[in-house]
Amino acid sequence: MEDKRVIKTKRNIKHTMIAELGKTGFNKITVTDICKHGQISRITFYTYYNDKYDLIEEMFRDYVKEADDDYHVLIKNVDLTDRFSRYEILLECILNLYYNNIEFFSHAVADENPYLFSEFYRHIFMKVQDYIERHNELKPKYSSRQTAALLCNGVWTFITESRAMGLPDKTVRRDARNCYKVLLESDLFTK
Fold first, then answer.
1. Model confidence, pTM
2. Measured between alpha carbons, how far is 140 from 106 in angstroms, rounded to an integer?
């Protein structure tokens, strides 16, 4: 368990990174910017992180853990005999992750911050691929890599494009669930 001061300092650094993303692209953010706006010394920053990429990596690990924890809470309240329920909970966790951390994820789009987009995609892709391989209530017609790529990229792009269109969050969630269900019921998966 980390010391409360360490937790507070790291939280400040992460919030500062998010605030900087609201001002400029990830590629232009420097450790100096983070230190200046987070009111910390470079020594403090480098005590916890090697560079801004190391910081982002930890943030993504935190977000994946948040989604995992959410999944374990939500899965307790569903009918597991329904072959779609686990995948629907998986989507719900991705939607919750996005909307609970929208200040960060609204910047993880390919044209604005390609590095953040690719790193987020990599983290979510690995989790979804692992999920597909471990759960067999629906068997993908294609490889787990191809199926995970379609689900991850499709859902993420659907969310970001819907938000870019100015659709209300409630509408985006509903429509994403509907599209996802169509995919699950299609011949992408064998029953």
1. 0.88
2. 30
